[in-house]
Amino acid sequence: MTTAALGRRVGYSTQQVRDLERLGVIPPAPRGANGYRRYRSEHETALRAYRAMAAAIGPVPARRLLPAVIAGSVEDAAERIDLLHARLAEERSRVREALRALDVAMVEADDVFAEEDAMSIGELAQALGVRPSALRHWEGEGLVHPLRAGASTRTYGAAAITEARIVAALRGGGYRIPAIALLLDQVRGHVGPRAVQDILEERLADLARRSIALLAAAASLHALLVERTEQPCAVVTRDA
Q1: Ranges for the HTH merR-type domain (predicted)?
Q2: Could you give the number of structural domains in the chain?
Q3: Phi and psi at residue 57, in whole multiples of 5°?
Q4: Which domain holds residue 8?
């Protein structure tokens, strides 16, 4: 196949095919007598595998994975694919744990809070399973607002405890500080913790979609590995 013909078969432009070859996503194509690239079935299989993996894990991770699958051993390729499934499962576990923590935060936010129920930084850190330094960092980032009784003494009332629980839940779900700051702005804007719960549940749904896409990509990856073992593509050295 020519570059254009291969692109039409997989839904990529000619330039995209060339870029993906340059990045090692597909094996180097040999040149014909006229100097043009000539692509074979293994190139199409590799491009279809990349397209499926990009849908499952994103284009950048897929661009890192496919060259390793092409150049590495079959055992290494199998291990890398297993790790992808494991990471999705781990992330799903974190999000579910974040939802459980958020449920606690929402229930306790409705409780009548007495002044004597305020917590010290050590007590709150222990309750959340984090280090006191994490609470100080969250305070520095404007995520948690304890009451200050002096230069170094902090007291966490109802609002600060709810904030800290939400931050801990979202950090456990894999969210970074800037994203958490935006979500907390929604909570403080009277949208409430329920909005954060909806976001976490949406992430769970996205993880399910990615898992299914990864299963679909497995067929293309299997075909690529079979072609590698049965009919490996030779690397052609050509002049610059």
Answers
A1: 1-43, 118-186
A2: 2
A3: -125, -5
A4: 3-86+211-230
